[in-house]
Design brief:
The chain is mainly alpha-helical and 89 residues long. Helices cover 35% and strands 4% of the residues.
Length: 89
């Protein structure tokens, strides 16, 4: 089973860079290169709701998912990822 980005849910094995970069430039085993660079989130400050919306639009544009399917998948997956679980009360 492949490890997925704990911010967006993308399988790290399909990330062209195989992960984002930590502050020391080592490869992150938690986050993809689209979400994480130099030890920081590229979309720092984004809300969970905005991240879900961003992923819905990406899934529709890049993978031709119907909006309802993309939304259902994003809403089921993203809140359970490490980045978002720790920010929920």
């Amino acid at each position: 089973m492949s490890t997925i980005c704990q911010s967006c849910g993308m399988p790290l094995d399909v990330d062209p860079k195989k992960g984002g970069t930590n502050a020391d430039q080592s490869i992150s085993t938690l986050y993809c290169s689209f979400c994480f660079e130099n030890g920081k989130f590229k979309d720092e400050g984004i809300t969970l709701e905005a991240k879900i919306e961003k992923n819905v639009h990406l899934a529709m544009a890049q993978f031709n998912y119907p909006e309802a399917e993309a939304r259902a998948k994003a809403e089921a997956l993203i809140p359970n990822l490490g980045r978002w679980k720790s920010s929920q009360n």
